[in-house]
Amino acid sequence: MKTSVKILLVITLVLSATYTQAQTRFGIKGGLNFSTASFSQNGVTATPDSKTGFNLGVISEIPLATDFYLQPGLLFSTKGYKMSNFSGSDLSVSTNNIEIPINALYKLNAGSVKVLGFAGPYIGYAVSGKLKSGDESEDIKFSGDNKMMNALDLGFNFGAGVEISNFQITAQYGLGLTNTFANFGDTKVKNKVFGVSVAYLFGGK
């Protein structure tokens, strides 16, 4: 856990150092998450039901070349999924995550509107979570002998949207690449999140 926190701090400091570049814009971002997961156990695969959550945080936009930008962010993002009749009862998993996306962004001018396309990796870290099975509920343990889930989540984002004045309206898909479950034999669970967001950027042209 300490190592993961250090990684997040180092990345945040590196991103902060880039903020001094000319024409860099800063903004706030928020929206909805519709999350589920890819689930496999003993050779059987399944797609759990989705859960609705949210994302909220700050982003910056750093010019790299004409119409190309680097758009890192620091977000609070909720994820999870639901499964019916899992081992005889309904299962619900919810996690609260700190997430750092680092997207390459391209803007296509279309008159008063700019069309956006972006993609890039993300690093996430679960700070808390809740597991519900039937009528029972417990906090998810991310460390120790009774560890239930891995806190670190690495993945890849891609999406599209439009920019109108200082507003960016986007839709994106986040594909988790790491197994988030621990100590459950060959059980593998990877996050899958569809999100819609609105951002407002200050500064710049």
| Spatial gap, N to C terminus | 41 Å
User: Roughly what fraction of the amino acids lie in strands?
Assistant: over 45%
Rg to the nearest angstrom?
Answer: 18 Å
Can you tell me the CATH class?
Answer: Mainly Beta
Write down the overall mean pLDDT.
Answer: 87
Strand order in space, largest sheet: 1-3-4-5-6-8-9-10
Give a quick set of tags describing it.
elongated; Porin; mainly beta; eight-stranded antiparallel barrel; 205 residues
Task: Explain how this protein is built.
The structure is a single chain. The chain is mainly beta and 205 residues long. It has a single domain (2-202), classed as Beta Barrel (Porin). 8% of the residues lie in helices and 69% in strands. The chain has 1 helix and 10 strands; from the N terminus they run αββββββββββ. It has one helix at residues 2-17; strands spanning 25-41, 44-46, 49-65, 68-86, 89-110, 113-133, 136-139, 152-164, 167-176, 188-202. The chain has an 8-stranded antiparallel barrel. A hairpin with a 2-residue loop joins strand 5 (89-110) and strand 6 (113-133). The longest helix has 16 residues, at 2-17. The chain starts with a helix and ends with a strand.
Topology:
Layout: H1 2-17, E1 25-41, E2 44-46, E3 49-65, E4 68-86, E5 89-110, E6 113-133, E7 136-139, E8 152-164, E9 167-176, E10 188-202
Antiparallel strand pairs: 1-2, 1-3, 1-10, 3-4, 4-5, 5-6, 6-7, 6-8, 8-9, 9-10
